[in-house]
Amino acid sequence: MRLFVAVVPPPAVLADLGAAVDGVRERPDVDARYRWSLPDQWHLTLAFLGEVPDATRTDLEDRLARAATRCPPLRLWVEGGGGFGSARRARVLWAGVQGDLKPLRTLAGSVAAAARRAGLDVREGRFRAHLTLARLREPTDVSAAVESLATYVGPFWVAERVELVASFLGQGEGRRSRYETVASWPLSGSPGDPE
After folding, report:
1. Cα three-residue angle 191-47-142, rounded to 5 degrees
2. How far is CA 36 from CA 71, 131, 180, 187, 190, in A?
3. Which of 22, 40, 38, 18 is nearest to 30 (CA)?
4. Which residue of the set 130, 131, 140, 142 is catalytic?
5. Measured between alpha carbons, how far is residue 140 from residues 93, 94, 129, 155, 166 in Å?
6. DSSP codes, 47-96
7. pLDDT tens digit string along 21-66?
8. Please, what sign has the CA dihedral across residues 1, 95, 136, 11?
9. Which residues have a Cβ under 8 Å from the Cβ of 194 and sit 6 or more positions away?
10. Which residues, 6+ apart, have CB-to-CB distance to 57 below 8 Å?
11. CA end-to-end distance (rounded Å), the chain
């Protein structure tokens, strides 16, 4: 099963961001090259795990549960946006996430470490808190979209869970991937817990 670990914003946060993204999509300089993610699929990826054998799942889930117990609930909000690699040559348009970023980075590191201890090949990389809004087939100047998102500040929410999500890839042209939460755990550490 193809899996990733994520924090999922609540529906009200996604709806607010969705209204802002609708404004971006309506701009005449934002065109068909953008392959927009559906709002109900927006999430904050902590670690992409790839294909996970069923035999590994129990150990992985036990380790992810322990990682969640060490992190307190996190106060977060969506703010601004950008493009990966740069706004002028982006393959991804994203919305930024702000708030309790230090414990969020620690949680992402703990999740990746838990996956590695369960025997998965998870790459260590620089964590950037974001929600993927759109992908582009080729490097594209997304400066106009980034400019539209520059002043956006969404409502804050308290992230209280970490989710293990299965990704089912779409088949054929225009078919979208489908995500399904297969397990979740509360963030139950206290703010004074060691990181």
Report:
1. 105
2. 32, 12, 19, 30, 37
3. 22
4. 130
5. 10, 13, 22, 29, 29
6. EEEEE--HHHHHHHHHHHHHHHHTS--EEEEEEEEEEES-TTSEEEEEEE
7. 999 999 888 888 899 999 999 999 999 999 999 999 999 999 999 9
8. positive
9. none
10. 1
11. 30
Closest by Cα among 149, 142, 60 to 96? 149
Residue given tokens 């004074």 in the structure block:
192
Indicate if 130 belongs to the active site: yes
Query: Side chain identity at 96, as an amino acid letter?
Result: G
Residue 170 catalytic?
A: no
Asked if residue 83 lies in contact with residue 142, where contact means CB atoms within 8 angstroms, the answer is yes
> Which residues of the chain carry a pLDDT beneath 50?
172, 194-195
3-state secondary structure of 44: strand
Residue 46: how many CA atoms within 13 Å on its side-chain side? 27
Options 3, 17, 43, 52, the catalytic residue:
43
The two structure tokens encoding residue 106: 């620690």
State the alpha helices, DSSP H only, in the chain: 11-25, 54-69, 101-117, 143-149
> Does the global pTM surpass 0.85?
yes
How many Å apart are CA 181 and CA 73, to the nearest integer? 19
**32-51 b/e (C-beta count within 10 Å ≥ 16 → b):** eebeebebebbbbbbbbbee
Place of tokens 């970490």: 162
